[in-house]
Amino acid sequence: MTFSWNSIKRPIVALAPMAGVTDSAFRRIIKKLAPETLLYTEFVSTNAMAHGSTKTRAMLEFDSTLERPVIVQVFGADPSILVEACKEIEALGVDGIDINMGCPAAKIVSSCYGSALIQKPELAQELVRSVVRAVKIPVSVKTRLGWDTDETLIPFVSGLVDAGASAIAIHGRTYKEKFTGKARWEPIYALKNALPNVPILGNGDIQSGADALAKLGNLDGILIGRGCMGNPWIFQEVIDALCAPTPDGEGSTMKPRSLREKIPIILEHLHLCCQLKGERTGVLEMRKNWSGYVQGFAGAKELRVRLMGMEREKEIVDLLTGISQKD
Q1: How far is CA 271 from CA 33, 256, 268, 276, in A?
Q2: For the chain, which terminus, N or C, has the lower number of CB atoms within 10 Å?
Q3: Contact, 283 vs 269, CB < 8 A?
Q4: Under DSSP, is residue 228 helix (H, G, I), strand (E, B) or coil?
Q5: Chain-centre distance of CA 196, in angstroms?
């Protein structure tokens, strides 16, 4: 079945694209725990693709049976380079392409990528229009409330929609705010009111099913970003909260309440990372997840320190298996 934004069950619950986090291993874990989740990849440099980067192309690998629907997020500022990259990505059989217009990282913005495009609406529209004309799969955009104010949000996004964007995701902070303070969702609700026929998703500060239920409002769905690091169970929790809320707003699915309950999934995630990237890289990349996976338990700090110092998969497996077998 061909993917389209209108074919997805509402409300949409999606994995937000995050560099170094939303790789194939993590996407597969999320799909195992919450099959209805919409997946975004890490954001991919179209310039790096043009220069033949093998590391960048490796980021495009996905399991066509386990990771559906999957949307590849790209960044770039040259329409011709972007188009050629998106044609190549479409040929891989992905379900959609998303153009990053929200990343606030200095090295991204200084090259006129990510959030920098908010200040260049004509170029932003040209990028969308060029890709839409070049591919047959849906093209969406993820951006922010604005550069330093949300006053430009509606005209900026309206221009992207006029250029052919089929869906829009908004992080509830401006470029200037980076990831500080609380995400503001009210301007996103106003955007949906202004563009009622366009799928609009909100993103920012979703840490639980109750958060999602409180913040969905009139939107078509939400993206979960930093709140899922070390907590892939949050997706089913949010799906349950939005589709079958209980009085406490947490939904009906019981998430793991103990470290022992989490360990089988942690070890599966570790194994996938090592299998897909090699042991050394896989173990190193798991380090960003240890804090989330072990937080809230007795001895969490000491366990995290031990895990961060380990360099072999077997060391980690032995340590965590030992914990899981304790009375």
Answers
A1: 16, 20, 5, 9
A2: C
A3: no
A4: helix
A5: 24
Distances (CA, A) of 263 to 58, 134, 323: 28, 45, 9
Note if the bond before 264 is cis, omega within 30 degrees: no
Nearest C-alpha neighbor of 170 from the set 157, 151, 182, 181: 157
**What's the DSSP call for residue 258?**
S
Distance (Å, rounded) from C-alpha 241 to C-alpha 210? 7
Q: Note the pLDDT tens digit of each residue in 84-130.
A: 999 999 999 999 999 999 999 999 999 999 999 999 999 999 999 99
Q: pLDDT per residue over 47-81, tens digit each?
A: 999 999 999 999 999 999 999 999 999 999 999 99
* Amino acid in the structure at residue 237: E
Closest alpha carbon to 268 in 316, 312, 234:
316
Catalytic residue among 86, 103, 273, 274: 103
Q: What are phi and psi of 99, to 5 degrees?
A: -100, 125
E strands present in 92-159 = 96-101, 139-144
- Which domains, from first to last, does the chain contain? 5-243 (3.20.20.70), 259-324 (1.10.1200.80)
Query: What's the burial of 319, exposed, middle or buried (CB within 10 Å: 0-12/13-18/19+)?
Result: middle
What digits encode the pLDDT tens for the residues 20-51?
899 999 999 999 999 999 999 999 999 999 99
| Neighbour tally for 311: CB within 10 Å | 10
3-state secondary structure of 285: helix
Report which DSSP code applies to 91: H
Containing 168, the helix (H) or strand (E) segment is strand 168-171
Tell me, yes or no, if 103 is annotated catalytic.
Answer: yes
Going by their DSSP bridges, the two strands 221-224 and 139-144 should be labelled as unpaired
CA distance 61 to 57: 7
What is the number of residues in the chain? 327
Copy the structure tokens of residue 164. Answer: 């052919």
Neighbours of 83 (CB within 10 A): 19
